[in-house]
Amino acid sequence: MNSGRLRKAPENFIARDGVARVFAEARNGRRDFLRGAFAAAAAGAALPAAAQAAAPNDGDPNILNLPEHTRGLGQAVATDGYGKPSKYERNVQRRQSPGLTQTTQASVSFAPLQSLFGIVTPSGLHFERHHQGWWDIDPSKHRFMVNGMVKNAKVFTMDELMRLPAVSRFHFIECGANTGMEWGNVAVPTCQYTHGMLSCSEFTGVPLITLLELAGADLKNGRFVLAEGGDGSSMTRTIPMSMIRSGEVLVAYGQNGEMLRPEQGYPLRLVVPGVQGVSWVKYLRRVEVGDQPYGAKDETVHYVDLMPDGQHRQYTSIQECKSVVTTPSGGQQLLDKGFYNITGLAWSGRGKVKKVDVSVDGGRSWRTARLETPVLSKCLTRFNIDWVWDGKPAIIQSRATDDTGYVQPTYRQLRAVRGTRSIYHNNAIQSWLVEESGEVKNVQLS
Ligand SMILES: Nc1nc2c(c(=O)[nH]1)N[C@H]1C(S)=C(S)[C@@H](COP(=O)(O)O)O[C@H]1N2
Ligand SMILES: [Mo]
């Protein structure tokens, strides 16, 4: 059943035995397979819903005992004009960390990375970071202004913007504070909370350079652009013209095939590939061309890194190469020893992911994971690697390398440069401890 994948597997596919054993169990009959796979769960607690539903009718010759969904009429089309996930997936939610912030408006919700496949974050599960709450702004009233060092300051309506040549690109967005709590210690139990200020979408919009050219911007002396949001947070950030000139920076209205979600800045947001989330200004209403960095509050007081010598590092906007194993990860429970697919995400703000190595012995030995396509620049990359768990304690880690040759650091390496007092820009290797009981926990190796 999975033979296509097996045939394509590279030479270092060491887990063939594990796969074969699992599939042999499956051939012995579905009940036996389920009984084996869920033995641990059955011993302690109730069988998972899927196992319960599948088991009773399996092999039963009495047609009347077939499940309802094979005999009756299903739901009508468009029962729900905008579809929702299965009710059995209700647990897959973005979540806030109680006590992390004092209000729910100036706060954050984390994406459930452990439950997602591939590289695209479903829009309803995109992490949120609002400094002053979110808005659902009437697009017919929204305006976007270009001013500063330009010949003709311009104000665009949404209709005008959407007539212009558009591009669609896949990019990750990561808050600079993602994994921030781990600087101090092992603060939180799951990868949703350690790494969930991370999402990836296909964004559609107009390259900012097009709009600057339409306004006759001074692209020679105007070396910086200030981007300003329309919410109450006075969110303004400086974007270097060099990034904009490359055509990468977008004034975006589309996300995963539809308009942006209100939480993500509807109807307009800046997309600044590779740069920390705070520069992706939402509810974007204005850009101003200038000849020096603006030193806005979110560039001088916040989003700076306190270095070991007591000085603050500023304008360190690019999210360095990083990765995390999303399964098995903290809070999950392995049911039995045997075959597991280790999977995770890797990304770099400087380009493409070139390689991901995975260790199951706390970094003593490494194997190279398979990168799933597409592998895109400044985008999440999915990796997978086979593992046969022998039932003994294991420490699972991933280490990404990007196409500049930069290798994701250990905590020891990161702290040697950055000290211990940072909040932002933690891209260290994450460790998950698998205990003999199968319980997976967040641990930090020094
Ligand atoms: N206007 C505005 N833009 C904003 C913010 C905000 O509060 N207001 N938060 C910023 C921060 S800190 C981050 S990490 C990202 C989060 O984007 P998201 O909510 O779409 O995940 O938006 C950025 N842009
Ligand atoms: Mo952020």
TrEMBL record:
Q: Keywords, A to Z?
A: Metal-binding, Molybdenum, Oxidoreductase
- Protein's GO biological process: sulfur compound metabolic process
**Source taxon at top rank:** Bacteria
- Where is each Moybdenum cofactor oxidoreductase dimerisation domain found? 320-430
Which InterPro entries does UniProt cross-reference here?
A: Ig_E-set, MoCF_OxRdtse_dimer, Mopterin_OxRdtase_euk, OxRdtase_Mopterin-bd_dom, OxRdtase_Mopterin-bd_sf, Sulfite_DH_SoxC, TAT_signal
- EC class: oxidoreductase
Name of the protein in question = Sulfite dehydrogenase
Give one GO molecular function term: sulfite oxidase activity
